[in-house]
Amino acid sequence: MKTKIEQQFPPLELETRPTVSTAACSFYLRKAEQTLRIYASRETGPLRPIRVGAHLHWKTADIRKLLGVAA
To answer: In the chain, what are the domains?
Structure first.
């Protein structure tokens, strides 16, 4: 049985959006959202976000590459 969070995000190999929200990236990487925000502000993490207004978006292709998941 899938949890509520697992129901919210498709498996990474089925994700069709070019970028995902911080919440989705957090789910896929198993990192806290705040950790990703720290990566973004310090520019120290394994991924670089795209800033859209006040929001951060993370490239799906970069997440797949980091995790070794095929598209």
So the answer is: 16-67 (3.90.105)
- pTM to 2 decimals? 0.87
Q: Is the dihedral of CA 2, 18, 41, 43 positive or negative?
A: positive
- DSSP helix, strand, coil percent of the chain (3-state; round to 5): 50, 15, 35
pLDDT at 70: 83
Q: What DSSP assignment string belongs to 2-69?
A: --HHHHHS--GGG---SEEEHHHHHHHHT--HHHHHHHHHHT-SSS--EEETTEEEEEHHHHHHHHT-
